[in-house]
Design brief:
Elements lengths: L3 E7 L6 H10 L4 E6 L6 H10 L4 E4 L7 H11 L8 E4 L4 E5 L6 H7 L5 E8 L13 H4 L2 E2 L13 E6 L3 E3 L6 E3 L9 E2 L27 E5 L5 H10 L11 H7 L4 E2 L7 H12 L2 H22 L2 H13 L1
Parallel strand pairs: 1-2, 1-4, 2-3, 6-11, 6-12
Antiparallel strand pairs: 4-8, 5-12, 6-8, 7-13, 9-10
């Protein structure tokens, strides 16, 4: 039987890793591969412990003069971590796949679209829900306010993430694979999140859904790009894991902060996720490392509050939330 294999670049996501891993295990991911770079918050040690526990495969992806995300994808491909018939799922640490069919697993999603060999899942942007302070709790519990499904702007609101059978594509892209190994287009068996065929214009490129390809009925990707105001300060200081050195500020915050409607659909797997989360943290060493990451996050927040530029950004975020 084919496996579900995720590939993720990651930097300084320490406080949120255990929940994210538990979520992916709860939806049926068979192999979680994480390529971390330049971590300073204890993430690398936590990921090493998860690797030792057999829950993830962790690889140090730190390198000079190389975009971390592209490097991670190239290394993943060369390492043959997925077979030709396996599903490859490029997914970031702030993205949670939300399956809405069957038992809410990836297997149920594939059973709902049995002919699919490529499935694009549309982002649902989740804002900060008015939450100012960082707290150690499930992101999926804290941030339930999102953009409506029909939100066309900003362009990111309909961004795609795509899972695909490894043998059909030659190159992993951030939002969708590239370089198909088959022709014609129909042989890709490419479907959207509602189980409808994707338009053939996607063969030439596109990173987002359109009115003719949007679909949330079977699956969506909950995108928690901001989290709390305080955690966003840390994200700004870190930079984006796959955009080496790219600055973040108030413009990105206001672009991505959507709190128009409540969406609790991801709660369907909460009991399963919570049980896995508790089991993971029953390991004393993982608990120690998780708590250390949370403490480092709090220390970074305290320091950033004392810096004039980030303090001003924080006040501006409060004014726009």
């Amino acid at each position: 039987m084919s496996k579900f294999v995720t590939v993720t670049p990651m930097k300084n996501e320490g406080p949120f890793i255990v929940e994210w891993v538990a979520h992916n295990l709860a939806i049926g991911v068979d192999l979680i591969t994480i390529f971390s770079n330049d971590c300073t918050d204890g993430s690398d040690a936590l990921l090493d412990r998860l690797d030792a526990m057999g829950k993830v495969r962790h690889f140090d992806n730190t390198a000079r003069n190389a975009a971390p995300q592209r490097r991670a994808y190239r290394r993943f491909t060369k390492m043959q971590l997925a077979g030709d018939d396996d599903w490859v799922i490029p997914i970031d640490a702030d993205e949670f796949i939300n399956v809405k069919t069957g038992d809410n697993t990836l297997r149920a999603l594939c059973d709902a679209i049995p002919q699919a060999r490529t499935i694009s899942m549309t982002w649902r942007l989740f804002g900060n829900a008015g939450i100012k302070d960082y707290a150690d709790g499930f992101l999926t519990d804290q941030f339930r306010m999102a953009a409506p499904e029909d939100t066309r702007r900003p362009p990111q609101a309909w961004g795609l993430k795509t899972m695909f059978r490894r043998g059909l594509w030659g190159h992993i892209g951030v939002h969708r694979p590239k370089r198909p190994t088959v022709e014609p287009f129909e042989d890709l068996h490419w479907y959207n999140g509602s189980g409808k065929l994707m338009p053939d214009r996607y063969l030439k490129g596109s990173w987002r859904s359109g009115p003719d390809s949007l679909g949330y009925d079977l699956v969506q990707v909950n995108h928690y790009a901001l989290k709390s105001c305080e955690s966003y300060l840390v994200k700004k200081a870190r930079g984006r894991a796959h955009h080496d050195g790219e600055a973040l500020g108030l413009e990105y915050w206001t672009t991505m902060n959507h709190n128009a409607v409540e969406d609790r659909s991801i709660d369907a797997i909460r009991p399963r996720k919570a049980a896995i989360y508790d089991e993971l943290l029953s390991d004393p060493e993982l608990r120690r490392l998780h708590d250390a990451c949370c403490a480092n996050h709090r220390a970074a927040i305290k320091d950033l509050h004392n810096q004039p530029d980030t303090s001003a950004l924080f006040q501006n975020m409060l004014a726009t939330s």
